[in-house]
Amino acid sequence: MSKPPANTVLFLMGPTASGKTDLAIDISQKIKSRLISVDSALIYKGMDIGTAKPDSKTLAAYPHYLINICKPSDAYSAQDFITDAKSQIQLAFDHEELPILVGGTSFYFNALEHGLSELPESTPASREKYNQLLKEKGVEALHQDLQKIDPVAAIRIHAHDAQRITRALEVFDISGQTLTHLQGNKQGGLNYPIKKIILMPDRSELHQRIQTRFHLMMEQGFIDEVKTLKSNPKLHQDLPSIRCVGYRQAWQFLNNEIDEAEMIERSIIATRQLCKRQSTWLKNETQGLLLKTADLNQAINFIQQ
Fold it and tell me: How far apart are alpha carbons 175 and 161 in whole angstroms?
């Protein structure tokens, strides 16, 4: 096993179902590494099947840090992620390991690399206020409200992205300043050289993988997993954890709002839409190694250059 380049961080990025985890593990078998998850769904305990979390056997053999660190009822911010990721990166350097940050949550990657704006923190009262408004008015009406307050953010945020819409409204409510204005002043990026590998299979291949993977999740007991979550009185549909792709649709199915066939179809479509958003963001990552397939030799040569 070879030594890693000194004080260098590897970002291993790609859309969902692209094979990032397998490539990260393969690299770690060649270069002494620490695997650090960059995934806003894998942080949650008890959400294993629907998030395509590496199984317990894989995690025992190849530990991934920042997986299973929260309850689904917990709040976890991008600032929390930056703090935790920087701590893990430092531990990697202390042990002469290559920190491999692997995942598909673009906001986390961007926040870690470039820093975050000084945004006001959410409060239980403000979260409750906007969760209630979401139930009463609906996401499209709240997006229209955001257009009046912060048209730049409204263009950037998808009309059905309830979490980001309510956060933008909350920021304005608490601070009196728009999200766009506050995000113009970022602080605290990563002060180490970053190498980036972008794993980007063809769209048609990704779509097939997504469909196959979801049907496998169903066979593995995904609905039972969501039933267990649903039995927890602290959990509800408006939490970030339950809004994760697949979980929202399964929750609706268990509420008898849709049948199983529609739940499966909606989940696959939502995952493909997530894949498209991730791919669009990654197209702007021009500085790095772009791979259509998980070519280990190319990856190792790139890291060691």
Answer: 21
Best CA proximity match to 154, nearest among 164, 115, 183: 164
Convert the pLDDT of each residue in 167-216 to its tens digit: 999 999 998 989 888 877 666 678 899 999 999 999 999 999 999 999 99
Q: Report the pLDDT value the prediction gives residue 185, as an integer from 0 to 100.
A: 66
Q: Kindly report the backbone phi and psi dihedral angles of residue 179, in degrees, each rounded to the nearest multiple of 5, phi listed first.
A: -60, -40
Two structure tokens written together for 305 = 């250059």
Q: Kindly give, in sequence order, each residue whose CB lies less than 8 Å from that of residue 87, ignoring residues fewer than 6 positions away.
A: none
Give the distance, in angstroms, between the CA of residue 131 and the centroid of all CA atoms in the same chain: 21
CA dihedral (104, 16, 41, 163) in degrees, to 10, reads 80
Nearest to 105, CA basis, from 304, 266, 282, 227:
282
Q: Are 259 and 253 in contact (CB under 8 A)?
A: yes
Place of tokens 């002469």: 96
DSSP state of 117: E
**Please, what's the b/e burial string for 30-61 (b: 16 or more CB within 10 A of its CB; e: otherwise)?**
bbebbbbbbbbbbbbeebbbbbbbbeeeeeee
How crowded is the C-beta side of 296, counted as CA atoms within 13 Å? 11
Residue 105, by phi and psi: left (phi above 0), alpha (psi -120 to 50) or beta?
A: beta
18's CB contacts (< 8 A; 6+ apart) are 104, 199, 200, 201, 206, 209
Distance CA 25, CA 63 (A): 10
* CB neighbour list of residue 190: distance below 8 Å, 6 or more residues apart: 9, 86, 89, 112, 113
